[in-house]
Amino acid sequence: MPFQNDFFKSAFSVDNIIFGFDRDTLKVLLIKRAYEPFSGEWALPGDLVRPDEDLDQAAFRILEELTGVKDVYLDQVHTFGEVNRHPRGRVITIAYYSLVNIKNVSIRASSFADKVAWKELRSISKLAFDHYEIMQTCLRRLRRDVKFQPIGFELLPEKFTLTELQRLYESVLEKDLDKRNFRKKILSMNVLKSLDELQQNVAHRPAMLYSFDAEKYKLAKEQGFIFEL
Amino acid sequence: MPFQNDFFKSAFSVDNIIFGFDRDTLKVLLIKRAYEPFSGEWALPGDLVRPDEDLDQAAFRILEELTGVKDVYLDQVHTFGEVNRHPRGRVITIAYYSLVNIKNVSIRASSFADKVAWKELRSISKLAFDHYEIMQTCLRRLRRDVKFQPIGFELLPEKFTLTELQRLYESVLEKDLDKRNFRKKILSMNVLKSLDELQQNVAHRPAMLYSFDAEKYKLAKEQGFIFEL
Fold first, then answer.
1. Which residues of B are less than 8 Å from A10 in CB distance?
2. Interface ipTM
């Protein structure tokens, strides 16, 4: 019979890969674990899902506990369930990623963490559990998603220059982009609003500021437009 | 403390959305449940994941039990975990989808099913549990994936005509495609092999047969080519 009680002996957790962008660097929010297993090691923020909690709820809770933010881009990526991935029993974990603007966020350690910090993605070579693999999977997803959905803007301040936008894409995709082609492509999609406003407090010649026109994008999308960079 | 035993009281299952294509119709493999809950109702094939089983393993096992096939396209889509989605306790389910060529497959009912059958996608309006919602999510994924990856070919016989290929896309995307544009686009991608061989046993004028050139696609992809229909 399929419903033996033997099966009701597992737990499941949610792990959040929270990406942020700082000038020209892609970062990810990590915690230093306060508990065994892997006590004292850096890990993705995550927690067991409570018996009365839906999965998305748990992911938003973890995000809010660490960053204070609620209304940000958050999406489920993949579920990891190797038999021995957790030393304490069968624990499968559902990975989410979210995109936040680092400047809007003040991070604080919560119950399960001693410390919380933004770490440069390129500096990370090892994490607790299978979190390094999870991070790589989410990074691949981010790289695909930024090409086909205008989610990159979540990582930028509301007003940005085209150079900042290009830096963001270069940093996510880990490659240099041709300035002229990039500008041509992004402007031809007609989803940016030129603000008639210049950068302030910069040493170089101030550049024009833009913002993402969510309303225009929504209308265009309804008519079959596909964002593609 | 995070590791109370209270948390180790859930189970998790894998549900498989197995898509097949029959001439011009997209179908999905359903089972008639042999057990409560939802005994006698149609459902997606699925099973609890065994304590010693990885998630992908479980998905392949279910597929093989029902269809006898192993080496087919199979991918994880999304995990569903609403608190009350299962009447017997907290059971989260990881949805997979796979694409099979109906002609290569002989289906058989297995332990958890009374019956197994290919059902026309459009004819399905209700399924056990939250399986209808799961099916819709997987269908959206299939629709996106066939546009950007050459996975549609998995649903076709090895040799096919361009008309058959177009019917497949029309049936997955649920819209008519312009014949001339479709042919131009697919041929310009250079991933089809023209077989210098004609259809047999057809009433109309036999059309040229093609096959998907996986090797060519692989090489092109390594050089940055993106499949896009």
1. 8, 10-12, 51
2. 0.90
